[in-house]
From TrEMBL:
InterPro entries: PurM-like_C_dom, PurM-like_C_sf, PurM-like_N, PurM-like_N_sf, PurM_cligase. The lineage of its organism: Bacteria, Bacillati, Actinomycetota, Actinomycetes, Kineosporiales. It holds the Pfam family AIRS_C. Its EC number is 6.3.3.1. The keyword Nucleotide-binding applies. Its main location: cytoplasm. Residues 182-348 form the PurM-like C-terminal domain. Pathway: Purine metabolism; IMP biosynthesis via de novo pathway; 5-amino-1-(5-phospho-D-ribosyl)imidazole from N(2)-formyl-N(1)-(5-phospho-D-ribosyl)glycinamide: step 2/2. It comes from Kineosporia corallincola. This is Phosphoribosylformylglycinamidine cyclo-ligase.
Amino acid sequence: MASAEPGSTALTYASAGVDTEAGDRAVELMKASVRRTHGPEVLGGLGGFAGLYDAGFLTSYKRPLLATSTDGVGTKIGIARALDIHHTIGIDLVGMVVDDIVVCGARPLFMTDYIAVGKVLPERIAAIVSGIAKGCELAGTALVGGETAEHPGLMAADEYDVAGAATGVVEADDVLSPERVKSGDVVIGLESSGLHSNGFSLVRSVLKLAGWSLERDVPELGRTVGEELLEPTRIYTADVLAVAQALGTELHAVSHVTGGGLAANLARVLPTGTSAVIDRSTWRPQPVFDLLMKLGSVPLLDAEGTFNLGVGMVLVVDQAAADRTLALLAGRNLPAWVLGQIGTGDESAAEGAVQGTKGVNGGSVRLVGEYRA
């Protein structure tokens, strides 16, 4: 093997910008938070080449189906970086992943994460992972592994991005699908905690245009702009699974309101030939949405196709189960209300109707009326 010429400058991995010792320190700092997500099903400790999860319980299923999902948090990371606050962005990541899995009725079992950075700062990595672990605790999901990759020369020292993937399981007979939805079903909205993790490219553009700083205190919000924007995504997994257990076959469909807004995501879980009419007057979006629309002169339809506007998850239930569903959610301290109802017929030609989003040729959804003042 060739060696460096005498007098020449020797290049090492560290001089190229990769600090493996810093990576090791980051792992040590995150161990405690990760362990809190582990139950007896997780085998081994942190640092192995792969995470091991005991799936022996699947023998009790007649026909177990595995569900998987992956996602990131988009440009919300820019807000965390600007404020140097990194312990909540991981909660957003978990919410974006596990609540996509629960939509089909599956229980998320375990999750892994991937963090790409320009430079490994152990305390910052540990803060990010602590948020991921907190989100996994809220969802009842084990964090079984992850990877931190240092990308000097490709990312600035303060830059990073996060992504995650999770796996869940559902009994084949219990899968939620559009085929369950029928005319007369009730559409129930579950309150969001705010912006969640969608639409931040528009948010950042609005703030830049208005010249507002993240440190600006806003009376309508009761806190600074930055504090409002970093409000973590609400995680609905445990609530939806509780509803599924209580209602059984009376729970027909679930939609996670992320990119595309309420109408587009609800349309994805409706069968062709059905329509949902959603009454805006049944709720009042949180002040942050009205503020952004006014500040950036954002048209209503554009806002509805970008933000959740106060509804983070939607349940479609049998009409006879609507009151029980609302009572159950109230008992879990999750604000929820009736948004509208499922009908028959094609409303896709009606003004403002949404159909056929993200490659799914499903039902149609139309929002009517005006939001509650």
